[in-house]
Specification:
Keywords: Decarboxylase, Flavoprotein, FMN, Ligase, Lyase, Magnesium, Metal-binding, Multifunctional enzyme. Residues 6-213 form the DNA/pantothenate metabolism flavoprotein C-terminal domain. One of its GO terms (biological process) is coenzyme A biosynthetic process. The chain has helices at 35-46, 74-84, 127-134, 150-160, 200-217, and strands spanning 10-15, 20-23, 26-28, 50-55, 67-70, 90-93, 100-102, 121-123, 139-146, 165-170, 181-188, 191-199. With 221 residues, the protein is α/β, with parallel strands linked by helices. It has a single domain (10-99, 122-217), classed as Rossmann fold (3-Layer(aba) Sandwich). Strand 9, helix 4 and strand 10 form a beta-alpha-beta unit. Helix 1 packs across helix 5. The structure holds ligand PMT. The site of ligand PMT has 28 residues, from helix 1, helix 3 and strand 9.
Length: 221
């Protein structure tokens, strides 16, 4: 039996960006590198958990001992999460899922014609929100990437998505996305804690300790 603060637990993690297709060769995406999510996967594994990692397109090696599933779009990430969530006790959603996708995916490459074109976008499914509402046994940890009013927006997301914990990070040029360091302001109902700034690998270890403490405190699990 493994030692560690998450020994015997199954953790499902989403990481990286999603790609939302416009046509066969083009997509909408964002600057997430997957570093934060992959660091958490490694830290959960080191803490004794069985870890499954659903990753958008990133250029990172799979942490040793972690089971990885590659996906592209928000819909594919949701489908895989639905398939894998059953046995998990903890869900950590670090993925920077696209909030909108093109309403129609063109079968053929879009041709250059007029001087400007308009793209119609529709909402993608809210993976974390759907799972936390349906899987009431799950301990859910969300992330909130904000450029301003970190605390207010993060707390609103925690409530709206019905989460047990949310990790807010300030993002912008050279901050949060695609860099090695990060800082998190973590909120849960009844408390908060600042972690970092430090390397995402060290930060992930501290966050795992906090998640384990909060998980053990909750009596609904
Ligand atoms: O990947 P890195 O380069 O290391 O960067 C790390 C990070 C900045 C991407 C990460 O720390 C982070 O903040 N991830 C969440 C980014 C985000 O898109 O947050 P959000 O505020 O849009 O979403 C809130 C939460 O809902 C997140 O947990 C997100 O995974 C989840 N979500 C959002 C939209 C959606 N359709 N489905 C979701 O599950």
């Amino acid at each position: 039996k493994p030692d560690g603060v998450l020994a015997g637990l199954r953790v499902l993690i989403t990481a990286g960006p999603t790609r939302e297709a416009l046509d066969p060769v083009r997509f909408l995406t964002n600057r997430s590198s997957g570093k934060m999510g992959f660091a958490l996967a490694a830290a959960c594994q080191a803490a004794g958990a069985q870890v499954e990692l659903i990753a958008g397109p990133v250029n990172l090696p799979t942490p040793i001992g972690v089971r990885r599933y590659n996906v592209e779009s928000a819909q594919q990430m949701l489908d895989k999460a639905n398939e894998r969530v059953g046995k998990a006790q903890i869900l950590i959603a670090t993925a920077a899922v696209a909030d909108y996708r093109p309403r129609a995916v063109q079968d053929d490459k879009i041709k250059k014609s007029s001087d400007s074109i308009a793209l119609e976008l529709e909402k993608t499914p809210d993976i974390l929100g759907e799972l936390s509402r349906r899987e009431t046994h799950l301990f859910t940890v969300g992330f909130a990437a904000e450029t301003r009013e970190l605390e207010r927006y993060a707390r609103a997301k925690m409530q709206r998505k019905n989460l047990d914990m949310i990790c807010a990070n300030e993002v912008g040029p050279g901050q949060g996305f695609d860099v090695d360091e990060n800082a998190l302001l973590v909120f849960w109902p009844g408390g908060q804690q600042q972690l970092g700034p430090r390397h995402k690998r060290a930060l992930a270890g501290e966050l795992v300790d906090l998640i384990a403490t909060r998980y053990a405190t909750g009596d609904e699990h």
